[in-house]
Q: What sequence folds into this?
């Protein structure tokens, strides 16, 4: 009889395995923090509490923000090179320095700020007394009562991330954060509904978790008793608890790898993508170049849902599309669906803090009045953007064999209501009006966007062309892009030394520490602008040598026109190349990839060798490298303007996380 019941017992045990943390009581040795030993104080010198095998850490994690000394009460991967946060208590209310985690008078675990205001409280059952906190090696943070029974778990109240072994039950949601560094509630939600359907939602701009709009992804698992399972080996699927044979796999063609080799996490990112990530548990090499550029030192995407955010978030879901009105949403090969927002030429971001807020024109809207700028057709020009479309906002269209790009421009020029036109190879011209909605740029789009703007907007002619260093405007030359990034990455050390000894002939109205050069100085440096390196969109670039250092080269762009903003806009950083760096195209692809990986994996010290002076200002070093990466963006329309480069370098504008440089993909396709 005992023999016949044993298999049934084993089956029952297997069914209970996912629930073991709550079925079996913990023991005293599982406690990492005795609550009677609190408070835990938010300070940079406060050491985190680690799990038994030191896989995860719990404590106060400093935030990267404009306000110094703010902290998240969080759980993060402890052994990875970058401490990746997987759960946080107070994303909407960052804790200032000297905030405390302690027991309240009601025996609840509460986070208080330095003025004793409540920032977060762990919800616990009535008549339960919290005794200790356990941080498990699977990343689960557990509060135990006096009998060491779990009364609260982070796995049951996730934020934006789930981990292997964690189960998402119905009526549970993940909420995206605002950005990579801002952990307040974002605009997207992954929700396992009570009807069993797993749905991705975009939220209203009020950021209210109650006001949901139309879904942009759903599994269709309706009327299931659904559970989202995330296995130890990185697989993810929805299972019907009532029907064991009903399974919906979220990871189909991708192989996540082995749990012996990888860490895993799944997260709804701030751009709305739900992604499975993996990270090598150990680096397999000591070589500096490989350790920086190998995926072993960073999180890589295994699967992204949906594949392309830009295409699924149309204008009728959130006003203007994913990036807001008058904007451009782009995703690139290798980005695994990650979206990037930008403004068309002649437009600026509505809110510099959020690049998805939309864009506004830097000129008056066409009014069709007699005194409008669009009336005098000699003062109108069109900005051309290839592989671009605004599929909404059209009010009229032309089609037929006689429709060409030139005729499309002419029709828009003759129509005072037309603010832009989209022309495709199918001989169709669609006229647009403001706001331009759901802007998308992709290699798969064959249409051309033609934006009507005032001629020479923001540009006035002066008696002499102004000379600017290549660090500001890169034009369209791939060769110059490479040169600039090499100069930025390899010679950062030179910048730090040079900036301390710059001459003080700087216009006080500029108020920065950058070096200004006269036309004559740069004419002498380039020996009369003789050796041409290449030609960009706004002028010709010449090789030069500064008189102050004959061993260091500079690339100087001679502009054909100047910008109305005046002298302030043009005084910028000089990027000088080390004498060991040539202008050849040899190992630049590897160098750029290496430099980007060093930035991404917080290994910028490898770029500056043993320069202690540079290491003392790593924040500025990181800012310089980020700006350099943006400046070599393969899409010229997404590169920052000259004035924005200056503002980003000086810290006036926030510098967003740049995409991986994809320059060489386009280069190889052209060669």
A:
């Amino acid at each position: 009889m005992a023999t016949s019941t044993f298999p049934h017992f084993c089956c029952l045990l297997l069914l209970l395995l996912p629930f073991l943390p709550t079925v079996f009581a913990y023991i005293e040795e599982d406690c990492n923090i005795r609550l009677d030993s609190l408070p835990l104080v938010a300070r940079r010198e406060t050491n985190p509490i680690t799990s038994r095998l030191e896989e995860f850490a719990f404590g106060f994690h400093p935030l990267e923000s404009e306000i110094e000394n703010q902290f998240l009460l969080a759980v993060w991967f402890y052994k990875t090179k970058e401490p990746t946060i997987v759960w946080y208590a107070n994303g909407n209310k960052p804790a200032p320095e000297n905030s405390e985690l302690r027991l309240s008078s009601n025996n609840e675990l509460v986070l208080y700020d330095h003025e004793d205001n409540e920032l977060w409280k762990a919800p616990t059952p009535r008549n339960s007394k919290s005794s200790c906190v356990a941080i498990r090696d699977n990343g689960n943070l557990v509060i135990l009562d006096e009998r060491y029974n779990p009364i609260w778990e982070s796995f049951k109240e996730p934020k934006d991330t789930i981990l292997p072994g964690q189960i998402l039950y119905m009526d549970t949601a993940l909420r995206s954060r605002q950005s990579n560094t801002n952990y307040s509630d974002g605009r997207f939600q992954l929700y396992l509904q009570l009807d069993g359907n797993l749905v991705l939602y975009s939220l209203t701009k009020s950021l209210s978790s109650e006001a949901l709009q139309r879904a942009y992804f759903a599994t269709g698992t309706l009327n299931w008793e659904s559970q989202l399972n995330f296995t130890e080996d990185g697989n993810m699927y929805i299972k019907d608890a009532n029907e064991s044979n009903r399974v919906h796999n979220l990871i189909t063609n991708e192989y996540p790898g082995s749990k012996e080799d990888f860490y895993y996490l799944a997260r709804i990112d701030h751009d709305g993508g739900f992604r499975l990530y993996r990270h090598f548990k150990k680096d397999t090499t000591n070589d500096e170049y490989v350790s920086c550029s190998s995926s072993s030192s960073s999180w890589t995407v295994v699967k992204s849902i949906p594949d392309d955010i830009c295409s699924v978030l149309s204008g009728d879901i959130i006003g203007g599309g994913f990036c807001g009105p008058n904007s451009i949403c782009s995703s690139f090969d290798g980005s695994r669906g990650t979206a990037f927002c930008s403004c068309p030429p002649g437009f600026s971001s509505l809110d510099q803090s959020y690049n998805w807020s939309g864009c506004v024109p830097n000129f008056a809207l066409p009014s069709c009045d007699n005194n409008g700028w669009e009336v005098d057709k000699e003062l109108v020009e069109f900005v051309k953007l290839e592989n671009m479309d605004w599929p909404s906002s059209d009010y009229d269209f032309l089609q037929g064999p006689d429709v060409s790009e030139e005729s499309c421009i002419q029709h828009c020029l003759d129509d005072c209501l037309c603010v832009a036109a989209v022309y495709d190879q199918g001989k169709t011209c669609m006229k647009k009006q403001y706001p331009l909605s759901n802007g998308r740029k992709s290699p798969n789009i064959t249409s051309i966007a033609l934006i009507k703007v005032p001629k020479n907007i923001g540009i006035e002619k002066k008696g002499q062309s102004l000379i600017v260093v290549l660090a500001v405007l890169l034009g369209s030359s791939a060769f110059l892009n490479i040169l600039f990034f090499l100069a930025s990455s390899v010679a950062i050390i030179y910048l730090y030394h040079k900036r301390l000894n710059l001459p003080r002939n700087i216009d006080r109205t500029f108020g920065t520490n950058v070096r200004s050069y006269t036309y004559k100085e740069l004419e002498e440096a380039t020996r009369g602008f003789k050796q041409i390196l290449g030609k960009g969109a706004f002028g010709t670039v010449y090789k030069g040598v500064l008189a102050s250092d004959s061993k260091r080269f500079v690339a100087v762009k001679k502009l054909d026109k100047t910008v109305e903003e005046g002298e302030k806009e043009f005084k910028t950083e000089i990027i000088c190349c080390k004498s060991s760096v040539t202008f050849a195209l040899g190992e630049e692809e590897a160098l750029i990839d290496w430099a980007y990986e060093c930035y991404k994996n917080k290994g910028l010290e490898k770029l500056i060798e043993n320069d202690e002076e540079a290491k003392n200002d790593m924040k500025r070093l990181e800012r310089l490298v980020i700006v350099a990466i943006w400046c070599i963006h393969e899409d010229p329309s997404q590169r920052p303007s000259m004035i924005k480069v200056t503002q980003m370098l000086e810290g006036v504008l926030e510098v967003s996380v740049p995409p991986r440089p994809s320059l060489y993909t386009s280069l190889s396709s052209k060669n």
Notes: Residues 2-16 form the longest helix (15 residues). The two ends are 76 Å apart (CA to CA). DSSP finds 14 helices and 42 strands in the chain.
